[in-house]
Amino acid sequence: MSAPEPDWPRLPKPAFGDPCNSCGLCCLSGQCPISLGAFGEQAVCPALRPDGEQMRCGLMLEPAVYLGTPAWSDGPLREAIKLMLASGVGCDAGRDFDEAASARMMRDARERVAIASLEAKLMFNLFTERREVPLG
C-alpha cells in the first residue's frame, strides 16, 4: 500500500545517488525509522513540511518540536538524525537503483559516522579535562 499523494508541489526526483533536491519522494514512499518511532505508522510522516517547491524534514529542522525534547537538545539531535538517515549523501529513493552510487553513498555515510564519532570523543575529552581543572 502506498501513501496518498499530498496536495503540494514537488520537484522532480534526482537520479539515484545524485545530490538531494528536497523533492520529498523518500519520505512520501515510507516513513523512516525515526518517524515510525516518534509517531507510529502514518500514511504520511507528520513532520514532513512543504517549503515552497521543496519538502523539509521537521525532525531534522526542529527535533524538540516533534520529539518533545528540550530546545537545547536541537543541535545534537539534528546532527544525530542527519547521521542516522544518511542525509546529504545522495538520493536513495525510487526504483532507479545504481550499484556504484549505492556503494559510494555507503562509504560516504560510514565516513561521516566515523568523523562524528571522533568529534564526539574529542569533545568528551575536552569537557572532562576542563572539569578536572580547579576553578578560581
Give the helices and strands, then pairings.
Elements lengths: L24 H4 L4 H7 L8 E4 L2 E4 H4 L1 H5 L6 H11 L14 H34 L4
Antiparallel strand pairs: 1-2
What does this structure look like?
By secondary structure, this protein is mainly alpha-helical. The chain has one domain. It has helices spanning 25-28, 33-39, 58-61, 63-67, 74-84, 99-132; strands at residues 48-51, 54-57. A hairpin with a 2-residue loop joins strand 1 (48-51) and strand 2 (54-57). The protein is globular and about 50 Å long. The termini are far apart.
Give a brief rundown of this model.
The chain is mainly alpha-helical. The chain contains six helices and two strands, in the order ααββαααα.
Give the amount of beta strand, in percent: 5-15%
Total E-strand runs: 2
Order of helices and strands: HHEEHHHH
Average pLDDT value?
Answer: 84
> How many domains, in number, for the residues?
1
In whole angstroms, how far apart are the ends? 64 Å
Q: What portion of residues is helical?
A: 40-55%
Rounded Rg: 18 Å
- Morphology call: globular
What is the topology, as strand order, of the major beta sheet?
1-2
Query: How many DSSP helices?
Result: 6
Structural class: mainly alpha
Main sheet, how many strands, which sense, barrel? 2 strands, antiparallel
Low-confidence segments, given as residue ranges, are none
